[in-house]
Design a protein that fits this description.
With about 240 residues, the protein is α/β, with parallel strands linked by helices. It has helices spanning about 15-25, 40, 60, 70-75, 95-105, 140-145, 165-170, 175-185, 190-195, 205-220, 225-230; strands spanning about 1-5, 30-35, 50-55, 85, 110-115, 125, 130-135, 135, 160-165. It has a single domain, classed as TIM Barrel (Alpha-Beta Barrel), CATH 3.20.20. The chain binds zinc ion. Zinc ion binds near residues 9 and 89.
């Protein structure tokens, strides 16, 4: 079973809308980890095809700028008050953070990337918070310099695969760090960004479309992360 997750990472509205459109087109579910107030995200709040979790940013704390752990969590939880899941920006995690997530009523955290591993079965931490791992992440894939015509995992299996992809890389069809770095300066400007979309080799967008197509060939259903955890009894 393939689960699709996406970290919004402050992408502009048109870029987020583009990702939503793709999932809608193939009628496959996706879990979004949200970073900011967005009317596009608001429009899918009650859509069963999408789950909204939070994507708090703890990096300013690590860089000794202002703020607190609780402020960073509350900032996004105010936008998505019913969130069940959390993935920190840049996958920041720690033992006290697991407890803080739990204190805020979150039921799972998704902060561990195990690239291309076969066994990524979720499990419960001591406090009942469920840990969900992912075995594919678009930006890590291009940091390895791996081509995007191969996920390097077996995607047609009943074993769990969790994909972490970003709207910005779907929009840019990112194939390499260079493609992203060239476009990055226009991050908030979709009309400029589109000029940097990779059309030469297979990129993140192409890979996602192939995955969504094949998902519908091989599986009868798709699930959000929370639905999967419920169905598999990781969360009761
Ligand atoms: Zn992020």
């Amino acid at each position: 079973m393939n689960l699709f997750t996406s970290d919004i990472d402050w992408a502009p509205e048109a870029v987020i809308a583009d990702t939503i459109e793709l999932f809608n087109k193939y009628n496959v579910k996706c879990t979004f980890f949200c970073t900011h107030k967005s009317s596009v995200i608001d429009s899918i709040k009650s859509d069963n095809n999408f789950e909204l979790g939070i994507h708090p940013n703890f990096l300013p704390l690590m860089n000794q700028q202002q703020g607190s752990i609780r402020e960073a969590i509350e900032k996004v939880l105010n936008i998505v008050p019913n969130a069940k899941g959390v993935r920190s920006h840049s996958l920041v995690q720690s033992t006290p953070l697991y407890q803080t997530f739990k204190d805020y009523g979150l039921e799972y955290e998704a902060n561990t990337n195990l690239p291309y591993k076969n066994e990524i079965k979720p499990f419960k931490l001591w406090n009942g918070l469920v840990k969900v791992m992912h075995n594919f992440e678009d930006d890590i894939h291009f940091l390895y310099n791996f081509p995007f015509d191969d996920t390097k995992i077996n995607t047609y299996t009943n074993m769990l695969n969790v994909f972490c992809i970003h709207p910005i890389h779907i929009y840019l069809n990112t194939d390499s760090e260079q493609t992203y770095n060239k476009a990055k300066v226009h991050y908030q400007n979709p009309t400029e960004l589109i000029k940097f979309r990779n059309t030469k080799v297979v990129g993140t967008r192409d890979l996602l479309i192939t995955l969504l197509n094949n998902h519908n060939k091989y599986f009868d259903n798709s699930y959000t992360v929370y639905e999967y955890l419920k169905i598999e009894n990781f969360i009761i």
